[in-house]
Amino acid sequence: MGEPDSDNVFSVRGLRKSFGPNVVFDGLDLDVRRGEFMTLIGGSGSGKSLLLKSLLGLAPVDEGSIRFEGEELRGDTDDGFRRVREQVGMLFQASALFDSLDVYENIAYPLRVKREADEAKIHRVVCESLKLIGLPGIERMWPADLSGGMKKRVALARAVAVRPKVIFYDEPTEGLDPINVTRVNRLLLGLSRILDATTVVVTHNMESAFGISDRVAMLHDGRIIGSGTPDEMRRVDDRRVREFVDAVLD
Ligand SMILES: Nc1ncnc2c1ncn2[C@@H]1O[C@H](COP(=O)(O)OP(=O)(O)OP(=O)(O)O)[C@@H](O)[C@H]1O
Ligand SMILES: [Mg+2]
């Protein structure tokens, strides 16, 4: 992996993080390139969710460097990470809607937090977002009345309401039936194109990872042990990548 440069939205070098004896990051390097659709794969507990949170400054690391658009982020002053959180949309794993808010208010929430948009703009964004996710007209429905697939899609709409240039999705298709997996994958690709965004997706679904990504990166034993295009990853020599990928691809 080369030197960090400004074509990378994120450049991570030498990341280390332990919880007591549990070493989660052990000198991890990763680049996220501008405009790419990257998928992060790896076993359960390998640190995928923690990595996304670390990039947003929501989980402090012990050592290492995180650059966002070329600028070094420091844990001791929160300014840099605040800028990251303003610019990066995130769909958290098992992302829950607020049950006490209807669909409209769920999607409007991040816009209200930012305090930049007036009501007319919020209304427009909510309606546009529902169209984008293929659920126009459900503004006044309540989360309790939505199916699991619909909830996921509304959560996606909320994640992109501020029209971020960089979006993280942590397991966006977890628990969905195959039709909804395909639908959500198409949606993720469509959103990345419409928003002209850089996308990082964490998934256990290898068909998704290999079907829609520009690049796939695998996290294992605290490091990125392989990264490349889906074709490159299929042909990679590393036995640990092979075993993981082969176990789920025919
Ligand atoms: N706040 C915390 N305190 C202690 N340990 C933590 C904390 N956050 C994460 N960990 C540990 O870090 C490791 C990585 O967790 P993480 O949630 O990132 O895994 P993951 O790769 O996302 O797994 P999954 O695929 O199951 O979602 C786990 O061993 C977890 O127990
Ligand atoms: Mg996780």
Structural summary, described in words:
Helix 3 (103-114) crosses helix 4 and helix 3 (103-114) runs parallel beside helix 5 (148-159). It is built from nine helices and ten strands. A hairpin with a 2-residue loop joins strand 9 (215-220) and strand 10 (223-228). It has one domain: Rossmann fold, CATH 3.40.50.300. The chain has 250 residues and is an alpha/beta fold. The strands form two sheets. It has a six-stranded mixed β-sheet, with helices on both faces. The protein has a four-stranded antiparallel β-sheet with strand order 2-1-4-5, with no helix packed on it. The structure holds adenosine-5'-triphosphate and magnesium ion. The site of magnesium ion (MG) has 4 residues, from helix 1.
CATH H-tier superfamily: P-loop containing nucleotide triphosphate hydrolases
**Which consecutive residue ranges, at least 5 long each, have pLDDT under 50?**
none
Approximate strand percentage: 25-35%
Specify the number of helices.
9
**How far apart lie the N and C ends?**
30 Å
Short key terms for the protein model shown above:
4-stranded antiparallel β-sheet; alpha/beta; globular; binds adenosine-5'-triphosphate; binds magnesium ion; 6-stranded mixed β-sheet; 250 residues; Rossmann fold
Write the topology of this structure:
Layout: E1 8-19, E2 22-33, E3 37-41, H1 48-55, E4 63-68, E5 71-72, H2 79-87, E6 88-91, H3 103-114, H4 119-132, H5 148-159, E7 166-170, H6 178-194, E8 198-202, H7 206-212, E9 215-220, E10 223-228, H8 230-235, H9 239-248
Parallel strand pairs: 3-8, 3-9, 6-7, 7-8
Antiparallel strand pairs: 1-2, 1-4, 4-5, 9-10
Helix pairs in contact: 3-4, 3-5
The structure holds adenosine-5'-triphosphate and magnesium ion.
